[in-house]
Amino acid sequence: LLRWNEVRYRKKGLPPGTMGWPVFGETTEFLKQGPNFMKNQRARYGKFFKSHILGCPTIVSMDPELNRFILLNEGKGLVPGYPQSMLDILGNCNIAAVHGSTHKYMRGALLSLISPTMIKDQLLPKIDEFMKSHLSNWDGKTINIQEKTKEMALLSSLKQIAGMESGPVCEAFKPEFYKLVLGTLSLPIDLPGTNYRRGFQARKNIISILRQVIEERRASPKAQHDMLGCLLRIEDSRHKLSDEEIIDHIITILYSGYETVSTTSMMAVKYLHDHPRALQELREEHLNIRERKGPEEPIDWNDYKSMRFTRAVIFETARLATIVNGVLRKTTREMELNGFVIPKDWRIYVYTREINYDPFLYPDPLIFNPWRWLDKSLESQKYFMIFGGGSRLCPGKELGIAEISTFLHYFVTRYRWEDVGGDKILKFPRVEAPNGLHIRVLSY
Ligand code: HEM
């Protein structure tokens, strides 16, 4: 019986590896040992091995060249392979649920909302206004920076999407969104009290809030210059979006930019605290920007573009903390990869974490060294996969960096801070501080 998985998935041409226990496979080892599980399996079976994790037979690819190949060749028998709970809760029109030509046009619509021109003309002023107010009155307080950055990522997106910032709609939205996020990371067991059921219910509640917002918009003669305004204006009949598609676009933007932006911001605060020289250089960059401006004057595109060291801090944070461990794909037919035959419907875990610690790409890889990114070519090297790659390369990269940069701008020019101490940070499977990350904030 214990060899059930080995027998069930035995097939000629598969890469080496072990399939673990019936049903559970090697999920427990994977979640418990995290990156060490991957390293051990690699030592035994090489950079391309089979396993059974998170309920699915899975091929793990830790080979940078092959990872690149997989990301660049998505059309050829590979589609996103995210867990069922995520697809159910994020919706059928979610970008991770579509492929081929539907993905192309959904992605096009999304890109038009968060392109550099949009950031420059419409989003950056909103982000600036939001950060200024979100970061007010922290002086003299002990705050949980994890909670604050999560709130920041959600509320800043709501403001950019539909001008929602505070008030009853936002307050109703917040708890539902948190439940939705938890649901996407749960086992798809539809029973009362499970995170999956709660997440699904939260999706329904979010849809009804968004439907109401859309109806109010349609009834109002005023043209709104935000993402929802743009989505409602896409009138070209071939690409006109249904309400369902508009709602799933909004959920996609909220969800994709939530943990990524909040966790990178939190970890940047942590690393800057631990590396005073980097903090000093970052602060100088932002004080120089402030010197050129009036006290309440917002930061604009040129200021953002001048934040070279800030950008380097963000990349170094995303690299060292490994905000994204990898991406998931699924085979839609039997296919050959790296000389092996991968059956249909197997998951492929494109594990990119190890690339972040490759000493040839990043000398002294465990040291926080933002200066390494001042050489721009590092950002365009072919194994740079912090934002994914190929046809699913993160479309929100620039927007995410702009948000984190604006947050850091107001944070370091207004405040200094001390670690309260005693908080633990977990790095796997997600970067998080289970009991929060508390800092004591004082005015600068
Ligand atoms: C530091 C911040 C961010 C990081 C590290 C990050 C990382 C990533 C990665 C690795 C992928 C590839 C997923 C895959 O191939 O399956 C991705 C895709 C995506 N990201 Fe981001 N992201 C960030 C911020 C954002 C923001 C702010 C938004 C939205 C406004 C966003 C929207 C998306 C979307 C919609 C996709 C799916 C693209 C597609 O399937 O075509 N991301 N992101």
Give your account of this protein's structure.
The chain is an alpha+beta fold. The chain has a single domain (63-443), classed as Cytochrome P450 (Cytochrome p450, Orthogonal Bundle), CATH 1.10.630. Helix content is 50%, strand content 10%. It contains 17 helices and ten strands. It has helices at 4-8, 27-33, 35-45, 64-72, 84-90, 100-114, 116-134, 145-162, 168-184, 195-219, 227-233, 243-256, 258-274, 276-291, 301-305, 308-321, 397-414, and strands at residues 48-53, 56-61, 78-80, 142-144, 326-331, 335-337, 340-342, 347-351, 415-419, 438-443. The strands form three sheets. It has a five-stranded mixed beta sheet with strand order 1-2-8-5-3, with helices on both faces. It has a three-stranded antiparallel beta sheet with strand order 4-10-9. A hairpin with a 2-residue loop joins strand 6 (335-337) and strand 7 (340-342). The protein is globular, with a radius of gyration of 22 Å. The termini are far apart. The mean pLDDT is 94. Bound molecules: protoporphyrin IX containing FE. Protoporphyrin IX containing FE is lined by residues 80, 95-96, 107, 110, 114, 252-253, 256-257, 260-261, 264, 318, 323-324, 327, 386-388, 392, 394-396, 399-400.
